[in-house]
User: Fold this.
Amino acid sequence: GKCTDKWPTGFVWRDNTCVETDGEVKCWRCSPPRFVINERFWISLFVFLWNNAFNVALGQLVISMAVALWFFTLEKGSTFVTPKALYMSVRYHLGTVAFGSFIIAAVEFIRCIMMYFEKQAE
Assistant:
């Protein structure tokens, strides 16, 4: 209808003061959506995507580094490999994780923009 013809859709609410126009009583009103899609929304979305990709990539790197350190350790079970894996990941590979997660976030951001345009075209 009038309130839900565009995306993002607003919502309809019943007003206590009804208006009569052309012999028809109108008690329902339209309200805009509770959020606005502007540049702050798009920046926040990109930051969210980048943080998400960064956390996933760092977690995967720390796990793979811990497994590699454990596998090549001669006395297995006598030392903790996770703190050393975390240190090596942050010390030597944090830039690689940040750059890779930036590329992934950029591609996902373009996909989100295309999905937004697709919804607008419906």
